[in-house]
Each structure stands twice: as structure tokens, then as C-alpha cells.
Amino acid sequence: MEKEKNWWKKEIIYQIYPKSFKDSNHDGIGDLKGIIEKLPYLKELGVTTLWICPIFSSPMVDNGYDIADFEDINRQFGTMEDVDLLLAEAKKFDLKVMLDLVINHTSDEHVWFQKALADKDSPYRDYYIFKEGKEPPNNWRSIFGGSVWEKVPNEECYYLHIFDKRQPDLNWENREMREELYAMINRWLEKGIAGFRIDSITFIKKDQDYGSLPADGVDGLVSCKEKTRNRPGIEIFLHELRRETFDKYNCVTVGEAPGVSYEEFPTYVGEDGYFSMIFDFHYADIDVESGSDWFKRTNWTTVEFKDLLMQSQAALQNAGWGANFIENHDQPRALSKFVAQEFQSANSALGLGAMYFFLRGTPFIYQGQELGMVNAERTSISQFDDISSIDNYARSIKEGFSGKEALRFVNQRSRDNSRTPMPWNDSQYGGFSDQKPWLSMTEEYPKVNAIGNSVFKGYKKMISLRQQSAISDILQVGDIAFIDNLPEAVIGYRRIAKTGSLISYTNFSSEKVVFELEKPINKLHFDSHNKTFSGTKIELLPYQSILISE
Q1: Residue 507 pairs with which residues in a beta bridge?
Q2: In a 10 Å sphere around its CB, with 0-12 CB exposed, 13-18 middle and 19+ buried, how is residue 550 labelled?
Q3: pTM score
Q4: 3-state secondary structure 150-162
Q5: What is the DSSP letter of 246?
Q6: Edge-first strand listing for the sheet containing 523-527
Q7: How far apart are CA 225 and CA 223, in angstroms?
Q8: pLDDT in tens, 436-466
Q9: Rounded CA gap, 309 and 317, in Å?
Q10: pLDDT at site 1
């Protein structure tokens, strides 16, 4: 059946980190056949689209975000035949599949880069950003630490990498390179995928002066973001990308677009915007001053979080459509980040979930979030796999923190927190594998797993309310308006459509909150803590969330 226009507004998107989802071939690493095995679980939960993190050929320096071949599958995940089988089996469950699109950079093992290194006169050298000289061209710091410039062996020349040195940036100023990317994207869309989540897309345009800036750290370097993220001229590339690929298909595109101001949202997600929707990181990164400097912690408050959430929703409603999330493969677990330790429970997991799930926009669920998973606690930096964690540990120590403090920062913020293997049951290795997994399980998996899980049941109910209930229309396409005159700890908003209105209240704190409603609750649709309410006086327990009709 032909999909309607803007079909993605009514989807529930479930993010899979394939390395940690389900191992089918007994090697301790998740794979495509493992995903196929768990399609009935995903159907039971009620999600409608799967977003699968990179499965392409890669040396896995950055866990697949360093692609060596855009059209070959990493053997640890399976084969292209397995991709075809996944698409066919998912279709039987009415599940769509979207993939990650990583086109700011490649792996240094990509054939283009290998040819560029082998011959300075090769046309492929202009597919990347090389600068001749005896010294690095400027003092920009990469996202993963150290200079963005790496010396070419046996040459007085450097190449640019915004991320790891084994992830050289593509030169988007080169038309031939862009056309090769567009052809690749179209071949994937022809194969039948539903669309893409587009990685680090705001970095594709660099300031062509390549000038240095004042240092912002003891390493004498400065964050590259000011010169390489969402720079003037990017709109030419993004309009062309959409015109040459996405516009030819009724697909969904979700931009990872850090560095985009709210004033620019219409150009990104408006009627003629580059993408269907984008992730907004303003409230997700409230716990740190910068998503790449974990040692710069903030003492954030509920009021600040509420303000950021309100600004985000207002900007997205004004501009177009948003992708709502509280967890992903780059973020710690929401329970550990947002909830006081003594309240990190199944009820609080549902309270957090309901707070964001009923916002205006498409909800994203990250694997294990629907089980109420928490961060892992590691005792040594050697236990981490994530390159960003290892870099932040080293940078913290350079900035004057002790090893103990540095480890605490990394434990709080590590991307490995959300990459631990999925606990399917309470057996050894949680039913993820019968072999030792590539990354250690979290300690709580014997108790927190997919068997008889109350958080799962709560998420299933939230999904059912949004997808198959009398109030679905309000939750899917209704407008949002935040409610003033509430206690500081309470996040309250109305969802309003022609068919009616709903109110969500969440106590985003570790203290009970009591307040008065204008009129008694007409109907209680969802309650994370299973309390009874009567009259107009409302008492919300810590991290409790309710959805009501007036």
C-alpha cells in the first residue's frame, strides 16, 4: 500500500544498536539475524519503524560510524542477503526499517581514501581535505580530542578529521564526490528502506579560511565546532542532497543536527526543509556544558530543563516536526541521568517516558529504555570500549582532575552506558548470547530484563494510546501548549486537536508535589505510579507522570 505523505508523523521509531541487541551466531556480538529473531518482541511492544545503527563494512574504530564501504555489510553483523531477509521479514510484521547515513566522513580504510593516500595526484585526494605544510594548518581540536589534522606519512601534508584520525572528512566542495554519495543513497532507497537517520550532517561545510581561533583548553587547541558546524553555505549542499535523493522517494529523514539555532529550524524541518525532522539536543545535553567535554558538568535544575523543553517544542511546532527522545546510542541512560539514585525504579522510568512520549513529534525509543535500564558502573578506564570515553578520561586528567574524578565523569556520561548488551532474560549474559559479550552487561540484568517487565508493559500501553485509541489523533497530530502557574517541579502541557484535548503532568523532582486543578479529572489515561485521584487536589509522587482528559 502506498504510504501517505508525512506518514512518519504517526510512527513510533525504535533504535537498535545491532552490536548489542541479539547474538544469533554465538560470537558475543549482536547481528542482523538476531534482530530478525526479535521482530515478534518489537511487534508486541507496538513500535512501527526500526532505526538500525551502522551495519556497513567498517574497522569499527567508532563502532561502525567509520564506514569503509557504504554498500557492503560488516561480516560481524551478517551479509547483504541478511539485510534483504530483514526487510522481507520486517514487512510481514508491518515494520519499516531505516538505516544510519554517515556522509560527513569515511573510514581511512575506504578505497577512496586509500587511493588518495597512495597518489597525491589522484582525483580522490580532492574527495577529502588535504593541506600542504610542515605544521598543522590551524589549532582546531577534534570532537574526540587532539588536533583535527593528521600528518600524511612521508609528506609535508595533513588531512582533516573532525572526529577520530581514522575518520577523514569528505570534501563536500567536490561535486564528483557528492554525486557518488547521492547515487549510493538512491540505491539504498531503491532497495526498499524507509529512510535514514543522518549522522553529524551539520559538519559537512567547513569555513574555507581554515583560520585558527583563541585556545579554549590547556592543550592549546580550540573546539572545531565554530568553524566546522552549521556554517554559511551548508544550505546549498543540503538542498542539493534533498533534491538529488530524498525528494525522489516517500522516505523519512531524521537529521542529527547539533549547532542549529531555533531561528534556523524552518530551513531544516519546514515545508521546504532539508529533513522530515531533527533531533534537538538543547535539553538532552543539560547535564554538561558541551556534549564533547564531559568534565564540564552543570548543576542543572528542573526549572532549567522545563524551560529548555518548552523552547524546543515551541521552536519545532513553529517550524515543522521534531524527533523526541531521552536516550540514544550517544547518551547515558535517562534513569541514571535525570533521576535521583534512590528513585531509580520502574515507576520513575515510566514517569520519564510519559513526560517525553506524549510531546508533539515522533517518539523515539532506544533499545533497553523500555525495560528501565540504568548506567553501568566501571572501575577502570580499561573497561571502556568507546573512543570518546577514553578521550574524555585523558582530557579530564590534563585539565587537572584526579583519576578518580575523571572516571566518575566518564561513568556518568559514557556512550558505553547505552551500548551494553540487551538483557532478554536472567540467564548468564542475559540471553543476549551464550558467549561472553563484546561489552560487559550492566549489573542489574538478573532483575531488569525483558521477562515480565513492568516498564515494558507501561511503554506498550503508551504506544497503544498514541497509535490505537480514541485519543490517538490528539497525541499524533495535536498542537502543544505548556501550562503556566504550576509548581516549579511540575512539567505540564496540553495536547490540542479538533477532536479534543489532553493534559500531561510530570513531577520532575525527588519530592512530592501537591497542586490544585481547575476542575476534576474527567478520565485518567495513563499513570506511571498507579495511584488513585479524586477531586481537584493532585499529589504527584517523585517522577510520577499522568495523562488526563479534563
Answers
A1: 490
A2: middle
A3: 0.95
A4: EECCCCCEEEECC
A5: G
A6: 479-482, 490-497, 500-507, 545-549, 523-527
A7: 5
A8: 999 999 888 889 999 999 999 999 999 999 9
A9: 12
A10: 43
Which three cell numbers, joined as nine digits, stand for 302? 528542573
Q: pLDDT class for 477, splitting at 50, 70, 90?
A: very high
CA 213 to chain centre: 30
> pLDDT tens for residues 365-413?
999 999 999 999 899 999 988 888 998 899 899 999 999 999 998 889 9
* Catalytic site residue from 164, 199, 285, 416: 199
Which amino acid is present at 266? P
What's the pLDDT tens digit per position in 481-496? 999 999 999 999 999 9
3-state SS, residue 198: strand
Burial class from Cβ neighbours inside 10 Å (0-12, 13-18, 19+) for residue 498 reads exposed
Cell of 42: 518489537
Q: Please give the DSSP secondary-structure letter assigned to residue 287.
A: T
456 residue type, one letter: F
Write the CB contacts of 287 (distance below 8 Å, at least 6 apart in sequence): 297, 298, 300, 337, 412, 413
Residue 274 has pLDDT above 90, yes or no: yes
Paired residues of 493 in beta bridges: 482, 504
Extract the C-alpha cell encoding 170. Answer: 569528505
Count of C-beta atoms within a 10 Å radius of residue 261: 8
Give the residue among 14, 49, 47, 51 at the shortest CA–CA distance from 255.
Answer: 51
Active site residue 256: yes
Measured CA to CA, the distance from residue 125 to residue 117 in angstroms comes to: 7
Q: Of 256, 287, 327, 330, which is the active-site residue?
A: 256
Please, are residues 449 and 426 in contact by the beta-carbon 8 Å criterion?
Answer: yes
